[in-house]
Design a protein that fits this description.
Length: 404
């Protein structure tokens, strides 16, 4: 088969190589920078049996206009490439927030050996040995599948903008929606479509099911304070965890516990699950509490929650807020819009603001704070150091959108 794979910078090169190994004739095109050997104009002159395009590409791109070839997504292509070599079980996780936390929580209670593939890294369990760190584009799942198959283990895979559908269970962690692909697609709709081939799909609150295989979390699971109750598959389970009081952990822990029950696994080990780095993890240096909430899912809501948490732990209102987005970090699919950053600053009312990145205009925040209380720093690492140098007591909140 003659195959055209689009977008080499988001995994298209990996997908193209896999199809070539399988014996197909493959052209790969860099549709964003146009720096590939086969460029757009050359591809337009050739005929193909199959075109593989990322879900985020403008559907009206010139290479997709009235193509004679069948067009599939990167997610679909990965499912085809996986074929029958599917880890047992394989759980796929997608959503605009809570993906990584849900993935780590579920891995915490899985039995035997397996592979956890997340934006924070790919790990061999139960030793938690890091194997590599790659993006969570669909193509990255291929390497994780091979590793899980090699050890005859399970696979939990975090993926962006949908799932491959190869797994036995898919989890959509958030009802948050937004437009993408040149404003012509809706994220939640595409994530639901991508899960149509999974045996079961577990949905976070607020997501309406589109098929009978989809299970709404609130139908079988509820939380009261630090206690989570699950009624599923004739299993009646309870686990306790103080993190259930935090919005950023409540839904991921509920999803992980419910997913475990759907697979016949008791979720009781979630009672000793602890906060993971970059997701409301706590450090203390002298008289300063640092709440680290800098990750790929950071938004205004999680930053505001982190600030409340920091002030409660520190016992002081004094707070330095490090906020923004690392603009060089191309692996983060969903952004941190300027209006959300301003919303968080207004709600938190910190003593000092350290802006990371270059998207936010100074004038947009100068009317909220005295100019002397605002610092602009290019990276999260540098901003953390500056925050420590100007904060003598109280707390620091790291609320930067970055790939961690």
């Amino acid at each position: 088969m003659n195959i055209l794979v689009l977008d080499t910078i988001h995994g298209g090169d990996v997908i193209g190589k896999e199809f070539a190994v399988a014996g197909h004739q493959v052209d790969t095109v860099d549709v964003y920078r146009n720096e590939s050997t086969i460029d757009v104009s050359t591809a337009l002159q050739r005929s193909y049996d199959l075109i593989v395009a990322p879900v985020h590409l403008d559907p009206d791109h010139v290479l997709l206009r009235s193509p004679k070839a069948n067009v599939i997504s990167h997610h679909d292509a990965v499912r085809r490439l996986i074929g029958k070599f599917i880890p047992k079980p394989m759980i796929e996780i997608t959503g605009s927030k809570g993906k990584t936390t849900t993935a780590f929580a579920l891995a915490h209670i899985m039995k035997s050996t397996g592979i956890l593939h997340t934006s924070a890294g790919t790990f061999l369990y139960p030793d938690r040995q890091q194997l590599w760190k790659k993006s969570i584009t669909p193509a990255s799942v291929l390497g994780a599948v091979k590793e899980a198959t090699k050890i005859s283990g399970w696979l939990i895979a975090e993926e962006s903008l949908g799932v491959t559908g190869a797994g036995s269970l898919a989890i959509i962690t958030s009802s948050d929606d937004y437009v993408f692909a040149a404003g012509k697609k809706r994220a939640l709709e595409e994530k639901l479509k991508s899960a149509k081939n999974c045996d079961k799909v577990l949905l976070a609150p607020g997501i309406e099911p589109t098929s009978s295989k989809m299970i709404q979390l609130e139908d079988i699971t509820h939380c009261s304070g630090t206690v989570c109750h699950i009624e599923s598959n004739k299993m009646s389970e309870i686990f306790y965890n103080p993190l259930l009081k935090l919005e950023g952990y409540r839904i991921p822990l509920m999803l992980a516990g419910t997913a475990a029950c759907l697979m016949g696994i008791k979720p009781s080990l979630l009672s000793n699950f602890q906060a993971i780095g970059g997701r409301l993890s706590i450090h203390q240096i002298h008289n300063v509490v640092i709440v680290d909430n800098a990750n790929s899912g950071t938004n205004s809501m999680t930053t505001i929650e982190a600030a409340k948490y920091a002030r409660m732990i520190a016992g002081s209102h004094n707070l330095t807020l490090v906020i923004g987005k690392e603009t060089a970090n191309g692996a983060v699919c969903e952004g941190f819009p300027d209006n959300q950053i301003i919303e968080a600053i207004r709600a938190i009312k910190p003593n000092h603001v350290i802006l990371v990145g270059h998207s936010l205009l100074d004038k947009q925040v100068l009317h909220i704070f005295n100019e002397n209380n605002i610092v602009r720093i290019p990276t999260l690492t540098e901003a953390r150091d500056v925050a420590l140098s100007i904060t003598k007591n109280g707390s620091i909140v790291l609320g930067v959108k970055t790939w961690r």
